[in-house]
Structures are given as structure tokens and as C-alpha cells.
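sry for the spam today, last one i promise. C-alpha cells for design, 342 residues
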């Protein structure tokens, strides 16, 4: 259930939608309190649209495109906005649009490769917007109705539920613990904030997934990066533009995990993997002599190397032959054009 409203839409209409939606998602049949609804409306008004144009020749444009749109949410009294970091990769220009359709230029503040979070800040003051507090996703039950919101042309709000919480490994050399999976899904998930009924921020939208329940059935949903991962690194991100944990080895492969096998499906151009002779269809059997059968095992073995540039030995199945290939990884951020401000 999705509801969109622009600046001209009365707040009463938003409040009515939230009352109906909370009841439809199993909240107590009595109408939510006026204070609770006003809290959610206030949280929705902290959501902004984020529009990005990547720089000419950006490597990330190969998979993300040059023109990117998503959402973010104000978390700091100085206008600091939290979003999903892939929107900001190699940004040439950034604009944010507030709930009352004001469009402001912004600059990138930080991108954390390890978690996927991105920070930005408008170049002009944000007025009339109250920053949202950070919640505790670990204390959220699967029976609690949650609100997701998207920014841009007005604000769109949708009710959803947490259906699972587990580790997540992405095909693009990415792994986090405690990812939040919700259903039903929302389409414009990139950077969308997820709130509990107290208006506290629980996570930032990253993906559409077909297995929100994990191994318990094919249920469509969204994956949100939990703010529990942000709290320990927020100050470091603002001070340095990233985190030390983001300085880790990168091969430049996209892989799938099926039946206890890690298979490469794509090799990035001019990447360490390409230079070493890896190709789509190769099956990674071991790294530095240690067998790997999952993406998580592969990534953790790779990231255990203390230096991003330290050579690793991959055992791979290429066609019918088992080969050992030496790969010299790099720090991925050194291959990217840095957004202005970071």
C-alpha cells in the first residue's frame, strides 16, 4: 500500500492514510494516537529526493548509469542526509528535493564501501525539517508495522513489515551482518528510509529481493541496511569521507552462489580479476588454499588480508581444468573518480 503526497496535499490526508494502513497491517484496531501519527508525518517530512549525475567516464556508470535517483533522510541538525552510497559514486552533481518541493544543490560528504552508507549535505540551509532519531533495529519485531518513505516529487509512504533479519552477501563483493528484509516490497527503494511507529530510523533501502524470507520461501521484498551499522562509524565517515574498514582488497568480480559453488558471472573491465585471467563461468574453489563454497566465505577470506594490494592465490575451475591464478587486488576506491567534497 503506497500513498504519495505533494506540498499541496493536506497533512490530514497523510495522517488518515497512516491510520488506515497501520490497522491494515495488524496494528491494534483502535485508531493510532494523534501523537503517533504526527510523529510519522514528521519523519516523512525529513525524507528528501536525491538526484545524481555521475561524472563523464565514471566506472560506476557501467552498472549504475550516469543519471541516478533515489531518496535520503535528514539525520543531523546541520542538514546532514543519510542515503545509500551507490547513488553518490563518482557524482558530478547532486540535488536534493524536500517534501515541499524545494530543490537544493548538495555535496557528497562520505561513502562507506563496507556498509554501503552514503552521506551528503545541502549547500543551502534546510529549514523547517526536524532530523530523525536513529532507532534500534535489533529490538524490532516481525509483527510491528513499519513505514518506508521515498522522496522526490512530494513524499511517498508505504507500510511494510520486517520478515527476516540475517547476514547478506551481495554479488558485487559486499557483505553485511543483520540486514533487514521487509515485505511487501516498494519499487523506489534506493536510499529509502525505514521507520518504526515511533518515527525512529531503522535502515536505508538498498535492494529489491525475491527471497525476503531467506530459505523459507520465495517472497518478494526489500533489503535495508540497518542503522546499527552506522552508529559506530558515523563520526569517522564525517571526519574522513569513509572508514578504515572500506580500505580492503577488491577483485572486480560479480558472482553467484548456488549448490555450494561460487561462480563468476561478470568481470569488471580493467580490474585485477581481468588482469589475472578470470572470466565469466569460472568457479572459485579456494582462496589461499582455503576452500570456499559461499560468497561470505570468499569475501571474508579475501578481506582478511591486511593490505588491499596484497596478492591472493585463487584456485578456480575453468572449463574442465583446475588452475591456480595469482591476483593482485586493489583498493576499489582508488579506481573511482572521487565526488567533489569527499
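last one done:
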Amino acid at each position: 500500500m503506497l500513498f504519495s503526497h505533494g506540498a499541496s496535499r493536506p497533512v490530514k490526508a497523510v495522517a488518515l492514510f497512516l491510520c488506515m494502513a497501520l490497522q491494515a497491517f495488524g496494528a491494534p484496531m483502535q485508531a493510532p494516537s494523534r501523537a503517533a501519527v504526527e510523529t510519522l508525518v514528521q519523519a516523512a517530512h525529513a525524507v528528501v529526493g536525491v538526484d545524481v549525475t555521475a561524472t563523464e567516464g565514471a566506472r560506476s556508470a557501467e552498472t549504475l548509469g550516469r543519471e541516478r535517483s533515489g531518496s535520503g533522510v535528514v539525520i543531523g541538525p546541520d542538514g546532514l542526509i543519510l542515503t545509500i552510497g551507490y547513488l553518490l559514486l563518482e557524482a558530478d552533481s547532486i540535488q536534493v528535493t524536500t517534501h515541499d518541493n524545494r530543490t537544493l544543490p548538495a555535496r557528497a560528504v562520505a561513502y562507506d564501501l563496507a556498509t554501503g552508507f552514503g552521506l551528503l549535505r545541502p549547500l543551502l540551509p534546510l529549514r523547517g525539517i526536524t532530523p530523525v532519531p536513529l532507532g534500534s533495529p535489533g529490538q524490532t519485531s516481525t509483527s510491528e508495522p513499519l513505514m518506508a518513505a521515498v522522496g522526490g516529487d512530494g513524499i511517498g509512504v508505504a507500510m511494510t513489515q520486517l520478515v527476516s533479519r540475517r547476514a547478506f552477501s551481495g554479488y558485487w563483493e559486499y557483505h553485511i551482518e543483520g540486514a533487514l528484509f521487509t515485505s511487501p516490497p516498494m519499487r523506489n527503494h534506493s536510499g529509502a528510509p525505514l521507520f518504526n511507529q515511533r518515527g525512529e530510523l531503522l535502515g536505508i533501502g538498498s535492494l529489491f529481493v525475491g527471497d525476503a524470507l531467506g530459505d523459507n520461501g520465495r517472497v518478494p521484498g526489500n533489503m535495508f541496511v540497518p542503522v546499527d551499522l552506522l552508529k559506530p562509524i558515523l563520526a569517522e565517515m564525517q571526519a574522513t569521507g569513509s572508514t578504515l574498514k572500506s580500505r580492503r582488497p577488491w577483485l572486480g568480480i560479480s558472482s553467484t552462489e548456488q549448490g555450494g559453488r561460487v561462480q563468476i558471472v561478470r568481470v569488471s573491465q580493467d580490474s585485477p580479476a581481468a588482469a589475472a585471467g578470470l572470466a565469466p563461468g569460472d568457479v572459485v574453489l579456494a582462496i589461499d588454499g582455503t576452500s570456499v563454497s559461499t560468497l561470505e566465505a570468499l569475501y571474508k577470506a579475501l578481506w582478511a588480508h591486511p593490505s588491499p594490494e596484497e596478492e591472493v592465490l585463487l584456485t578456480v575451475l575453468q572449463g574442465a581444468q583446475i588452475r591456480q591464478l595469482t591476483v593482485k587486488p586493489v583498493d576499489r576506491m582508488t579506481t573511482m573518480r572521487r565526488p567533489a567534497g569527499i
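DSSP finds six helices and 21 strands in the chain. ok im logging off now
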